[in-house]
């Protein structure tokens, strides 16, 4: 979609639906985690079903699959990174209020700029340099890094959120590197093919993790089965819509509009899980979401 061209109402609504489904996927994951499911098991189920659906779509649409030697080297690396990102992000969701985990993950544009400079010596754009401190300041408010809203103090707050924040930032870092490698090494691969291979690799990474931990950890209660089924359905359906409906509406790939996912997660986390955060944290969340959306919507 050319820069500055307005998208249709149908496309805008579809993008919001995808953001809602992705936010709901993470809330469903937390329900599953609260009822006996572990992170690796959830990623295996989610990735396997999504890869299968995308594989069926590729076959039905007779998409030609052809990889160069570079693709064969780099696609497994990208898939490995996305597998690690999936494990880290779900690990953050299991430890933090869902919206806060997603907000910390939303620092990935910063990581993308860092990796682009480190790997390809590409300096960050001026807009991103301006946005970086805004995103970080908003995240500091949202996470209540000094423990003022919680009343725990900095040490107590970090004892409570430190591990979850670490996993979320690790997810952002690995996702940022995956984005950079995709752009430079696999950008010419059909998006449907690239996503199918990535989901397959992510599932294999999670399956190896399951094997190393001694097997699957399945739900211990009906709510856990509901959460596992819901996260798998929501994630797979969102990706299917992304690669079947959006191209017909004139939208290719991801859009900045979908970065409202943490806002949906905040509302759903309150409704479904009873998770609440202080008003100042909500303000910080809106700063992060607004800054990331502004980056994605800017004219290039």
Automatic annotation (TrEMBL):
Per the record, GO CC terms? membrane
Which residue ranges traverse the bilayer?
39-61, 73-93, 99-120, 127-149, 161-181, 193-212, 224-244, 256-273, 279-297
Which SUPFAM superfamilies does this chain map to? Multidrug resistance efflux transporter EmrE
Pfam families named among the record's database cross-references: EamA
The UniProt keywords, alphabetically, are: Membrane, Transmembrane, Transmembrane helix
Residue intervals of the EamA domain: 14-142, 164-294
Q: Does the keyword rRNA-binding apply?
A: no
What protein is this chain from?
A: EamA family transporter
Organism whose genome encodes this protein = Caenimonas koreensis DSM 17982
């Amino acid at each position: 979609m050319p820069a500055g061209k307005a998208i249709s109402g149908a496309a805008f609504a579809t993008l919001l639906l995808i953001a809602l489904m992705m936010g709901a996927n993470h809330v469903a994951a937390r329900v599953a985690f609260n009822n006996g499911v572990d992170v690796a098991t959830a990623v295996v189920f989610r990735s396997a079903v999504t890869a299968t659906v995308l594989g069926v779509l590729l076959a039905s649409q007779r998409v030609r699959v052809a990889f160069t030697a570079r693709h064969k080297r780099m696609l497994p690396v990208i898939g490995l990174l996305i597998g690690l990102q999936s494990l880290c992000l779900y690990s953050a969701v299991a430890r933090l209020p869902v919206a806060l985990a997603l907000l910390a993950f939303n620092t990935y544009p910063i990581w993308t700029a860092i990796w682009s400079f480190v790997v390809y010596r590409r300096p960050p754009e001026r807009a991103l340099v301006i946005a970086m401190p805004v995103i970080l300041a908003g995240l500091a408010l949202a996470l209540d890094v000094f423990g003022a809203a919680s009343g725990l103090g900095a040490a107590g707050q970090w004892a409570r959120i430190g591990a979850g924040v670490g996993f979320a930032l690790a997810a952002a870092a690995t996702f940022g590197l995956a984005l950079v490698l995709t752009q430079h090494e696999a950008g010419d691969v059909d998006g449907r093919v690239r996503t199918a291979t990535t989901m397959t690799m992510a599932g294999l990474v999670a399956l190896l993790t399951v094997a190393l931990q001694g097997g699957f950890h399945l739900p211990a209660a009906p709510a856990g089965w509901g959460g596992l089924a819901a996260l798998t359905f929501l994630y797979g359906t969102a990706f299917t819509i992304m690669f079947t409906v959006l191209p017909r509406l004139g939208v290719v790939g991801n859009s900045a509009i979908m970065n409202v996912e943490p806002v949906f997660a905040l509302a759903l986390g309150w409704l479904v899980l009873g998770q609440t955060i202080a008003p100042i944290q909500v303000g910080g969340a809106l700063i992060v979401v607004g800054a990331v959306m502004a980056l994605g919507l800017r004219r290039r």
